[in-house]
Structure formats: structure tokens, C-alpha cells
């Protein structure tokens, strides 16, 4: 019994110990749990306190943009509202859904007020669609106004308002409160505001009519910011947005791209506009056609036309309008346009847009003619590019380099004095005569500037290109323009010759002689001179432009008639043969109508005396002409051709009178500082020309000077020519060597199908092309 009691006591003790240990263990675990809960509670409270003063830690930064990163520029606003750090009230501001704040509504954040509107305002947590929108101004976030004066903008790429430091928020809000016009702030501040405008246009306006109605005002704000903040990335993004908005909501026919245009890179806005026009069956406007051509894959890069961009556009538009008076209409392709727009905000890097218009990017039919037109226009502006590369080109040089479509009083403001002078001189008459210094001054020739044949030839060629003809003209055997003497000017048609034909040269020579003879008796009789001019026109069957130039030449001669005495003295110094040949020509002209009246005989006697010939032989000479020994009149070949002279026979006579011709010309150019057009220096190789060639007829479209240079090259004894020799040949002809050689090669292409010259330090003449050109010249009809 006792042993049983002992066992019971031992068991009870053991059970009690186990229970006590179990309760102790449970108490200790509960105690530890309470301690952990207390620590966690304190940590949460501390974190909440810190969060009230400092924003929550930033998530990992977004990847860098694929395009040019936005440079961070340190700046602080010079205008800070009073006060220091402004944490939200203990109870916190009332959280309201995000809304668009229109222009004019006042908003206050942490004591900073602004009424410019055009922002998103509210708590993004209340609107799921705005939780990823960087531009939303959340009034519940902290703002630090105390330390902002000493802190620069620190946000990196693609700033978000909810991830800014409190000081950065203050900088942004201060910029808003002072009218968004401080040009010294970091560009990231401008971008953050711009993100809101971008969303309003690309997202809200698609479905919200009120937002769509705001688009013009939003674009005006974008334009204002672009004027203040000259930053490449901002201008690229904002320009692209501007184009896209106008393309989507504006007048497609008046669209003009803001974004930079380059080959193979058509802006999104232009793609949409082209699709709208094609889809609606509208014609393509000229300006939009020009922009489209610039974006094609094979279009020239801007560096090729940087110096002539405005002229290239004007020329393209002029020729496009001439080719397509009502505009080019393009058939709509079946494929619809779907594009991806690269926005500025980080959440709009790739924004897919389905516009519902035809996609014109893949159609080639209209692209080919536009590209060809653009390339042709640029090629025709090559001369202007070369002029613009000079150090100080004159207004006349620029005007002369313009294609015909761009010439006129409005094309070059520097040409206004010259155009005004011409308009005044030709207001009521086809030919105007005034002092040479007025022409030189209006053309930009400066006093004391080097002035010789080369400079005068360049001036007259430039005047030709803008439709102004001048007499005297060194290219037509005249003297250089003299500031102390008169000039005659006239409107020069586009098809006017730039060098004298054989007929014109004979007519001009005899007109000079006629004026000198007539002036010897006293005052010139204008009626008689006009009759003489008509007589020469009829005999030599002059072209209309030649008749006009000869009339201007007569007006110039009448302003200062040549001296017959001086002419006579010089003619008498020549051998008898050329003087007799010239007399035969004069008699032949007088007898061209089959009779010589007494007045004509008296004039012929004066000519004979001027030539130092015995006037007693005149009747016999007249008889020889009338019996067919001398040059005979030509019979008209068609019903419309006037009766003329036997030009072949007279040309043969004038070949004998080459010295006479040069001497007659020298009467008018004796004071010139440069050689005559047809003077030849001793170092120039001689070339035995046919009678018609000695009259310097043009070759393959070349003028007289270039034709002379070509003959000299063909007559050269070697296949190699020193550049110094070419320069020496070009100088008396008034030509610039490089341009002249290029013109010769172009003429060779037209005749022989290849270039005559290979131009380097030494100039090589291709013998096969030389032979072809030589045979071609020998085959020119006399």
C-alpha cells in the first residue's frame, strides 16, 4: 500500500513539472511576440514620420532614351514664394481624382499658386488611367520651399512628378507660378509640363470633343515654348507632336512639316496628311509635294542644297505648278496606315496609332516624277551654289545665276536699283540711252575696281541672264562699257544670240561706217539713219533679236558719232587690197536693189575718199557690180524671206577685210584697257579657218568666244596643253578657264558623244574626239 502511494506521488510530481514547463515556454514565446510587435510598430511609426518629410525611395531608373538624351542643366528659379518647407497638413490634403485644369483656373499646391492651367491635377491613386502618367501634379506629395534656393534640378531623364525630390517639385511649381517663361530653368522642367500637353493631344483629344477643341490653344503654347527654349531634343519632340496634331485635326491641304526632313525619314504627320488627301481624292499641293520629294529614299541630302534651300523650294513649286496646274491626283492604295509615334514622355515611347487613311509610303508611281523634278531643280541651281560659295558675291552675280523661273524684281532685293533704272529708261521706249556710270553703279561695280574686258564680259553676261541687253557689247565687237560715255539698253529676249552672226557683224560694220560718213556733214538725220537701218535689216535678213540689237547699236552711235576723219586716217594706212575689198562690199550693198540713186552715189564717194580710193573709179565699180562681177543679190528662197545679199561672196570679201574690220572696231575701243575680242596674242597657235569660220559663227551652241577657244584647242600641235596656255588664251576672250573648258566639253558631248578634254593639272586632248570635231567643222556649210 505504501509503495503504491509513493509511486502515485512521483507520477504527480512529474506531471506537474511537465505542465509548468509547457506554460513557461508558452509565456516566453508570447513575450517575444509582443516585443517584436512593439518594435515593428515603432518602425512603422518612424517610417511614416520620415515619409511625411521625405518622398518614398525611387524605383529603379527607366532605361536611357534611344534618341538624344536630355542634358541636365542646373538652374534655380530667381523668384521663390516666401516661406520654407511646406509639408502637407497632419490630416493631409483631400485626395481628389485627377482632372484637366483649363487655362485661367487657379491652383494652389503647398502655398504656391498658379493660374496658367493646362495641367493634370489630383491624386493618381483615384484614377487607374493616370497611375503611370508622369505629368500629374499630386497635391498630397511633399514640397520643400526652404532649401530650394541652394538646390539645382536633380531629376534625370523622363522626369515624373511623383518621383521628384521635394526641392525639385518646388522648382517646377515656381516655374508654373511665374508664367512658364523663365528661360534659365533646366529643360527637364519644361519637358515635365510638356508631357501633359502631349497626353491631352494624343490621348484625350481622340475621344473627347472638348479636348479636341483645345488643340489650337495647346499648339500655340507649344510654339511659345519652342521660341523660349532652343533645345534640340525638345524641338524634335514638340515639332513632331505639332505636325501630328495638325495632320489629325487640321486642314490637310495647308499642312507644312515642322520636323526636320531627310531622305528615307518621312515624319508621322506628313504620312497622315498624304493619306488623308489621297483618301479624299484631293490634289497634292505644290508645297506638300516638295516636302514629300525631300523625304524619299533617293532624295538629295540637305547639305547638297544648304546654300539654295529657299530657291530650290521656289523653283520646284514653279515647275510643279506648270506641270500640274491643278495639282497631282494620286490613286489611293488599299493598304491602311498604321504608325508608331515616339512621344516624349516615358510612357509614350511607342504609341501605336491606327488612323484609318491610305498608306502612301509604298506607292512608287507618284514618287518617281517628284524625285526627278527635285533633282532637276537642284541641278539647275548649280550655278547659284557656286556663286554663293564665293566670299562676297554681288547681287547681280546672284541674279544672273538664278534659273529663268526665279528671275524678276522680287527675286533679289539687291537688284532693285538696277531694275528701277531699267524700268525708268524703258518706260516709254524700247531703247534707253543714259550715262554708263549709272549702269555700272546700279550693277554694283565699285569706283576704283579693276575694270577691263574680262570684268565687262562677266557683267554683260550677267545682264543677259536677267533680260537686259547693252550696247556697246564687247562680245559683239564693241568697246567695254565706259563710265564717262553713254550706253544703250533694251529688253533682251530669252532666245537672243550671245555672239554675233556673220550677217549681223556685216550689218553692224556697215552701220558704223554709214554713221561716220553721215556725221561728217554735220548733225545726223534720224530719218536717214532709220532708213539705213531698215535697208541693212532687209539686205542681211536679220533675226528679230539682231534687228533690236542693231537698233540699240545705232542709238549708241548717235549719242557719240565716230569721227570720219579719224576713220579715214586709219583706213588709209592699210594696204590697197583690203581697202578695195571693203569698197566692193559697200558698192555691192548699195546696188543690191538693182539701182543706185544719186544720193547713194554721193555717199559712196565719201566712202571712197575715206578709204583713200580714187572716187573717179566709182562708176566703173558700179558697172562691174551691175553686170554681175561683184557680189550679186540673193534670190529669196521662201515666200517669207526678204531679198538679201550673196552672203557667201560678201563673206569671202570680208575675209580679205579682216584688218579693216578690226580697225573699224578699234575706233570705238581705242581707250580700252583690255585687248579686243578677236585680238590674238603671239603665243596663241594659228588656225587656218574657212571664210565662214573667220566670221566666228557659233559651234555646237557655243558663243563666239568659246568657239574661238575650241578652234585654238583643235589647232594645238600636241595632245597635251599646259593650263597656263589655256589661261592665256581665255584672257583676251573674257573667259574663266575652268568654266570655259567645261563648256567646251559639253559642246563636244553634243557633237561627238564624249568629252574632248581630260582636265587636270595638265589638260589632255582626246585625239579621236578632236578628229570628229575637226571633220564636223570642215563640214559646216559656208
UniProtKB/TrEMBL annotation:
Domain TerB-C: start-end pairs: 644-773
Domain Co-chaperone DjlA N-terminal: 511-617
Residue intervals of the TerB N-terminal domain: 102-300
Ranges of biased composition (kind: Pro residues): 57-68, 79-91
Region (Disordered): 49-94
Name this polypeptide is given: Tellurite resistance protein
Organism: Tahibacter aquaticus
Amino acid at each position: 500500500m505504501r509503495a503504491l502511494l509513493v509511486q502515485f506521488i512521483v507520477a504527480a510530481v512529474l506531471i506537474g513539472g511537465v505542465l509548468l514547463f509547457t506554460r513557461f515556454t508558452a509565456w516566453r514565446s508570447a513575450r517575444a511576440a509582443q516585443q517584436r510587435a512593439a518594435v515593428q510598430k515603432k518602425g512603422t511609426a518612424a517610417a511614416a514620420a520620415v515619409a511625411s518629410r521625405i518622398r518614398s525611395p525611387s524605383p529603379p531608373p527607366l532605361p536611357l532614351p534611344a534618341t538624344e538624351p536630355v542634358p541636365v542643366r542646373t538652374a534655380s528659379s530667381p523668384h521663390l514664394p516666401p516661406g520654407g518647407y511646406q509639408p502637407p497638413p497632419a490630416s493631409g490634403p483631400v485626395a481628389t481624382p485627377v482632372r484637366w485644369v483649363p487655362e485661367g483656373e487657379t491652383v494652389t499646391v503647398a502655398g504656391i499658386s498658379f493660374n496658367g492651367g493646362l495641367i493634370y491635377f489630383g491624386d493618381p491613386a483615384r484614377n487607374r488611367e493616370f497611375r503611370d502618367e508622369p505629368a500629374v501634379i499630386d497635391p498630397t506629395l511633399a514640397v520643400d520651399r526652404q532649401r530650394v534656393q541652394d538646390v539645382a534640378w536633380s531629376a534625370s531623364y523622363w522626369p515624373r512628378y511623383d518621383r521628384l525630390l521635394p526641392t525639385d517639385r518646388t522648382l517646377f511649381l515656381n516655374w508654373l507660378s511665374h508664367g512658364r517663361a523663365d528661360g534659365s530653368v533646366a529643360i527637364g522642367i519644361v519637358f515635365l509640363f510638356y508631357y501633359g500637353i502631349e497626353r491631352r493631344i494624343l490621348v484625350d483629344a481622340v475621344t473627347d470633343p472638348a479636348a479636341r477643341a483645345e488643340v489650337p490653344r495647346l499648339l500655340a503654347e507649344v510654339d511659345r515654348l519652342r521660341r523660349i527654349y532652343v533645345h534640340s531634343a525638345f524641338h524634335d519632340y514638340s515639332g513632331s507632336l505639332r505636325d501630328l496634331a495638325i495632320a489629325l485635326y487640321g486642314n490637310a491641304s495647308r499642312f507644312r512639316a515642322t520636323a526636320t526632313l531627310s531622305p528615307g525619314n518621312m515624319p508621322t504627320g506628313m504620312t497622315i496628311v498624304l493619306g488623308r488627301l489621297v483618301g479624299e481624292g484631293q490634289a497634292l499641293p505644290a508645297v506638300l509635294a516638295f516636302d514629300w520629294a525631300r523625304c524619299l529614299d533617293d532624295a538629295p541630302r540637305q547639305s547638297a542644297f544648304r546654300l539654295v534651300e529657299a530657291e530650290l523650294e521656289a523653283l520646284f513649286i514653279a515647275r510643279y505648278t506648270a506641270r500640274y496646274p491643278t495639282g497631282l491626283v494620286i490613286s489611293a492604295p488599299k493598304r491602311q496606315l498604321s504608325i508608331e509615334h515616339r512621344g516624349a514622355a516615358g510612357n509614350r515611347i511607342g504609341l501605336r496609332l491606327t488612323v484609318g487613311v491610305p498608306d502612301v509610303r509604298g506607292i512608287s508611281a507618284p514618287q518617281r516624277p517628284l524625285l526627278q523634278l527635285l533633282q532637276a531643280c537642284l541641278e539647275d541651281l548649280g550655278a547659284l551654289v557656286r556663286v554663293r560659295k564665293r566670299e562676297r558675291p554681288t547681287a547681280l552675280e546672284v541674279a544672273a545665276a538664278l534659273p529663268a523661273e526665279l528671275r524678276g524684281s522680287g527675286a533679289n532685293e539687291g537688284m532693285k536699283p538696277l531694275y528701277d533704272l531699267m524700268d525708268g529708261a524703258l518706260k516709254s521706249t524700247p531703247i534707253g540711252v543714259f550715262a554708263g556710270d549709272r549702269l555700272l553703279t546700279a550693277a554694283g561695280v565699285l569706283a576704283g575696281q579693276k575694270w577691263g574686258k574680262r570684268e565687262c564680259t562677266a557683267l554683260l553676261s550677267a545682264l543677259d541672264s536677267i533680260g537686259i541687253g547693252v550696247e556697246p557689247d564687247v562680245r559683239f565687237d564693241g568697246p567695254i562699257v565706259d563710265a564717262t560715255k553713254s550706253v544703250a539698253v533694251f529688253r533682251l529676249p530669252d532666245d537672243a544670240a550671245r555672239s554675233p552672226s556673220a550677217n549681223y557683224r556685216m550689218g553692224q560694220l556697215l552701220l558704223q561706217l554709214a554713221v561716220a560718213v553721215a556725221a561728217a556733214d554735220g548733225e545726223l538725220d534720224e530719218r536717214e539713219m532709220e532708213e539705213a537701218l531698215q535697208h541693212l535689216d532687209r539686205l542681211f535678213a536679220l533675226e528679230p533679236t539682231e534687228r533690236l540689237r542693231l537698233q540699240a547699236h545705232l542709238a549708241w552711235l548717235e549719242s557719240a558719232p565716230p569721227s570720219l576723219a579719224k576713220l579715214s586716217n586709219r583706213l588709209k594706212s592699210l594696204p590697197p587690197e583690203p581697202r578695195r575689198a571693203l569698197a566692193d562690199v559697200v558698192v555691192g550693198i548699195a546696188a543690191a536693189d538693182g539701182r543706185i540713186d544719186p544720193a547713194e552715189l554721193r555717199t559712196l564717194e565719201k566712202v571712197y575718199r575715206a578709204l583713200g580710193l580714187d572716187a573717179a573709179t566709182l562708176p566703173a565699180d558700179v558697172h562691174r557690180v551691175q553686170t554681175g562681177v561683184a557680189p550679186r543679190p540673193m534670190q529669196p528662197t521662201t515666200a517669207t524671206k526678204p531679198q538679201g545679199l550673196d552672203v557667201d561672196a560678201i563673206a569671202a570679201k570680208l575675209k580679205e577685210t579682216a584688218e579693216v574690220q578690226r580697225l573699224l572696231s578699234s575706233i570705238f575701243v581705242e581707250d580700252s584697257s583690255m585687248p579686243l575680242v578677236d585680238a590674238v596674242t603671239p603665243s596663241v597657235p594659228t588656225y587656218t579657218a574657212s571664210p565662214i569660220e573667220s566670221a566666228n559663227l557659233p559651234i555646237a551652241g557655243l558663243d563666239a568666244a568659246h568657239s574661238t577657244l575650241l578652234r585654238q584647242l583643235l589647232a594645238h600641235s600636241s595632245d597635251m596643253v599646259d593650263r597656263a596656255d589655256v589661261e592665256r588664251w581665255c584672257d583676251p576672250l573674257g573667259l574663266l578657264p575652268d568654266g570655259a573648258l567645261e563648256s567646251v566639253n559639253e559642246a563636244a558631248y553634243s557633237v561627238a558623244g564624249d568629252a574632248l578634254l581630260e582636265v587636270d593639272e595638265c589638260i589632255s586632248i582626246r585625239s579621236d574626239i578632236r578628229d570628229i570635231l575637226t571633220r564636223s567643222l570642215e563640214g559646216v556649210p559656208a
